[in-house]
Amino acid sequence: MTVESRLAFLVFFFLLWGLLGLLPWVGAALGKGGRGVLLALPLAPLGGMGAGALTPLAGADDAHGFLLSLGSAFMGGAFATGVGIWLEGRIHHV
């Protein structure tokens, strides 16, 4: 496998993990009417990418590990969204 094809796979995986991490933010933004979720916007895909990348690094590098990384990307995005909403709430109350 060439370097370019490996890079294309990595870019695809990170884009997929980022999009899955963004889904909980979209749900939170719809649920809150867009109020108090702006700080969580950049954190959600980053959380998804981080959690998705940690799954294969932990040793799950087959097809089962790929599916597990999709779920962990969603959960990482949900966690990062929650942290972003919490931080934005603390900023506005100070």
Account of the 3D structure:
With 94 residues, the chain is mainly alpha-helical. It has one domain. The chain is built from three helices and no strands.
Describe the structure concisely for a colleague:
By secondary structure, the chain is mainly alpha-helical. The protein has helices at residues 3-31, 40-57, 63-93.
Write a concise keyword list for the protein shown above:
single chain; 94 residues; mainly alpha
Rough outline: elongated
Main sheet summary: none
- The number of E-state strands comes to 0
Number of helices: 3
Distance between the termini: 54 Å
H/E element sequence: HHH
Mean pLDDT across residues: 92
Oligomer: single chain
Number of domains: 1
User: Over all CA atoms, what is the radius of gyration?
Assistant: 15 Å
The share of residues in helices is over 70%
Class by alpha and beta content:
mainly alpha
* Approximate strand percentage: under 5%
Provide the low-confidence segments as ranges.
none
Give me the secondary-structure topology.
Blueprint: H1 3-31, H2 40-57, H3 63-93
Helix pairs in contact: 1-2, 1-3, 2-3
